[in-house]
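A quick word before the example. In earlier lectures we treated sequence and structure as two separate objects. From today on, think of them as two lines of the same record. Here is Tryptophan synthase alpha chain written that way.
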Amino acid sequence: MSTSTAFEKAKNENRAALVGYLPAGFPTVEGSIDALTTMVEAGCDIIEVGLPYSDPVMDGPTIQDAVQQALDGGVRVDDVFRVVEAVAATGVPTLVMTSWNPIERRGVDRFAQQLQDAGGAGLITPDITPDFAPEWIEAADARDLDKVFLVAPSSTDERIAMTTAECRGFVYATAVMGVTGARAKTSELAAPLVARAKDLSPAGSDLPVGVGLGVSNGAQAAEMAAYADGVIVGSAFVRTLLDNRSDEQAALKALASMTEDLAAGVRAR
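And the structure line, produced from the sequence above:
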């Protein structure tokens, strides 16, 4: 299922979509499935499954801790697809967020086919731009997979226009300059970036824009939902699991509570 379906549903309900992220294999492969399905049940509209990689690009210390735990546990790319399959079976669009290197090593066409076979919606590729990803664009277009590229406050108008033209599903707007991590307040750069992405996109306002980096509670989600089509949350979910790592049931309960708070926030626009 494409993420555009979830964004359309949220738009019809006059709200933003809630997009939740966790790395596959954290705290374990089965544990990540349990956590992500808990997030779906508590209100996430779209799920991002992180592919653990030893050389992160955007990951801040919180996500790095979780990724390292997954790598230490022996998680493999095939495990990522197993997580995607389990989460996608809930009916919620499920994407993989990954550095480019693991895709290239496996083979772009093979990776795309395995993603499709698992029921995945598409890929978020934070460290590659459309002009350097012709093979992925071809493989994705052949399978109708979402292509989610990133724009940042530092992106030129030309770069934003080129990037949004190649996105399918949504465009990922990084609201702050720097690595991931929950923050005390959201960035003042986010709203202007969303406006630029829509103004410069060939699809105009029809292109959903999801904003990520920094949201950690419902109040911040509501603030961002006033101008964004999607509110993307990662580090806050990871931190909740890290803080409750000694008690799996307590961790899932805390995760559900946080998701419910965020889901209420995107509905309070």
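Notice the following. Residues 177-186 have pLDDT under 50 and may be disordered. We will return to this example when we discuss secondary structure assignment.
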